[in-house]
Amino acid sequence: MTGQDIDGKVIAATIRQELKEKVATMHHVPGLAVILVGERRDSQTYVRMKKKACEECGIASFGFDYPDTVTESELLLKIQELNNDDKVHGILVQLPLPSHINENNIIEAVHPSKDVDGLHPKNTASLCSTGTHVGAEKINWADMSSVPFHIPCTPQGCIELLDRSGVELKGKNAAVIGRSNLVGLPVAMLLMHRDATVTIVHSKTVDAPSI
To answer: Catalytic residue numbers?
Structure first.
């Protein structure tokens, strides 16, 4: 079996250029609000990368940084404010949050239409509704931009990388390593929507290498 390396940096640069051209044609500048709690270096790095990507694409970014001591109610008030702000089209709360804050409450507070992480229960339920029964509304999963709800970013990026690398997914056997609700499970759903047959490998899988 031979493998193919995917050059993610080149593909990402292409996508950002496409987005920059698309944003330039819009009547209103898209706005992304990012909430960061605490001083985790990995979280700070992710947020910097997101802000840089926005700048490159011509998207307005609004950053809201809070100390570890912020209360859950303070975050909920800020999210409600952003939900009602017409300049903000997407809201991203950088996870994980400190242990004294209930992440589910925070995720559910973000309006589904602005939940660009695709973690709100309504968006998760939409992703897991396959629409295979008679009379169901069909979604063109080959065109992610036409999907009428938000999909988790990393899983969508995985499919985008495969598509732009010319990988045909229909009918393939796909092994997904990990079963997290952030990556593993959404990736598996997206692959199934593209007619792949999926096996999820995780820490309790027997003889994972054989799969």
So the answer is: 50, 94, 117
Per-residue burial over 99-125, b = 16 or more CB atoms within 10 Å of its CB, e = otherwise: eebeeeebbbbbbbbbbbbbbbeebbe
In angstroms, the CA 140 to CA 133 distance is 15
- Rg over alpha carbons for the chain, rounded to the nearest Å, is 18
Phi and psi angles of residue 111, each rounded to the nearest 5 degrees, phi first: -60, 135
The whole-angstrom separation of Cα 22 and Cα 45 is: 26
Q: pLDDT tier at 185 (50, 70, 90 boundaries)?
A: very high
Name the pLDDT band for 135 (thresholds 50, 70, 90).
low
Q: What is the pLDDT of residue 136?
A: 63
Please report the DSSP string for 67-105 in residue order.
-TT--HHHHHHHHHHHHT-TT--EEEEPSP--TTS-HHH
pLDDT of amino acid 138? 82
On whether the CB atoms of residues 105 and 72 are closer than 8 A, the answer is yes
What span, in angstroms and rounded, lies between the C-alpha atoms of 10 and 19?
Answer: 14
Phi and psi, residue 47, nearest 5° = -65, -40
pTM, two decimals, is: 0.89
Confidence at residue 134, expressed as pLDDT on a 0 to 100 scale: 61
Residues facing 37 on adjacent strands: 66
Encoded amino acid at 65, one letter: D
